[in-house]
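The instructor's notes for this session suggest beginning with a concrete chain rather than abstract definitions. Hand out the sequence below and ask the class to guess, before any prediction is shown, which regions might be ordered.
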Amino acid sequence: MTDESRFEPIDPALAAMLATDPVADFLGIRFESIRAGYARATMLVTERLLNAPGTAHGGVMMALVDVVHAAVSNSHGTLAVAQDVHTEFLNAGSLGDTMVCEGVEINRTGRTAVYRIDVHAFGEKYPDGRHIATALARVFRVGTPWVTTAAADVAPTGH
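After discussion, reveal the predicted structure:
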């Protein structure tokens, strides 16, 4: 896993806004850390998240990747929207595994940014973790700042 201490902390109000994602809440995704250029979240593989063969559904892993992608790409306080996400499924997650997803910024310019996002499964079979998916993701940085003051009625949406 990545040493998150090399990434700068962000405004706690921005972190709270980025961690408030209805899809993440619905799927049981929990953020552990959001820093400038870094995000990590976890999700427990439950019976409702399995596919027909009984492994973690690929769409669930993609949702975890996307939720982390949204947080890491917006962590600098500028609205970013996804342009492309290429995901490789490396291994299957199993019932009871905790999937840990980390997103790390690779490159950021004024208008675009690229992120590496990895998913590891920790469980009975692999207590030290198993790499189960990797993604390369790109965003367009719209330029609109996230508003984190209490006076703001609406924060930008999108990813």
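Then share the key points. Confidence is low (pLDDT under 50) at residues 150-154. The longest strand covers residues 130-145.
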